[in-house]
Design brief:
6-stranded mixed sheet, 8 strands, 234 residues, Rossmann fold, alpha/beta
Length: 234
């Protein structure tokens, strides 16, 4: 298991960069990005139990989902989760703000899966947090708005997993949050997997490839390596 290597990598970035650091974590739906980042943040902040003193923060892309009301107005509710269903410019602006020197709390939005809605102001990022881990699907997408997101990231890791395992986890997640099994399978096949193809096409632009495997109901690291274009291997 290589969690300790990723923890060391984040700490090394923090030690060698004067400006705030933003580490991006990307990968297809259901791969385990949030599980991985939550675990890393817990380890990185283990000596700082009080949030106001923590040096590492998790700011997810999912907080920038457009509301169902707005998606309905735009006629794209049936594509929820696709790149155009996010406030990408707001996301890029928040990352830029977090990379600036701060003397006050910055409040970031989160995403409530039981409601399937973004919630404003639920993630306090204290001035002490000068290293941000942000995870989402499209951090490497080469299109307007998303390029601005990538430019705010110090580096980006790509997470991957056996597709059959990932898809089963994704179907189960949809069921747990309200879809019936048939609807969950249909959504994964027609929406999530179309998005996954788009995300996989960005793999070679990552600075690091992180392979996850399923164990005890959680995403665990199996392997960490540099991608084909010759990025650093740890």
């Amino acid at each position: 298991m290589k969690v300790d290597e990723l923890v060391a990598r984040v700490r090394q970035w923090k030690a060698t960069k004067e400006a705030p650091v933003v580490i991006g974590v990307v990968g297809p739906p259901g791969v385990g990005k949030t599980t991985l980042v939550d675990r890393l943040i817990k380890e990185l902040n283990k000596d700082s139990p009080e949030p106001a003193g923590q040096q590492y923060a998790h700011v997810p892309m999912d907080g920038f989902h457009l509301s169902d009301q707005e998606l309905t107005r735009l006629g794209i509710l049936n594509r929820k989760g696709a790149p155009e269903t996010f406030d990408v410019h707001g996301y890029a602006a928040l990352l830029q703000r977090l990379r600036s020197e701060r003397d006050a709390v910055v409040y970031a939005p989160g995403f409530e899966r039981t409601l399937e809605q973004a919630i404003a102001g639920v993630i306090p990022v204290f001035p002490s947090a000068t290293t941000i881990l942000t995870e989402g699907n499209y951090l490497l997408l080469d299109s307007p708005g998303w390029r601005a997101v990538r430019s705010q990231c110090t580096e980006v890791w790509y997470c991957e997993q056996d597709d059959s395992t990932r898809i089963q986890r994704l179907i189960q997640r949809h069921i747990e949050f309200g879809k019936n099994p048939a609807a969950a399978k249909a959504w994964v096949a027609t929406v999530d997997e179309r998005n996954a193809q788009l995300i996989r096409a960005t793999r070679e632009d990552a600075d690091l490839i992180v392979t996850l495997e399923e164990a005890v109901g959680a995403a665990w690291l199996k392997e960490v390596r540099g991608p084909a274009h010759g990025a650093e291997t740890i």
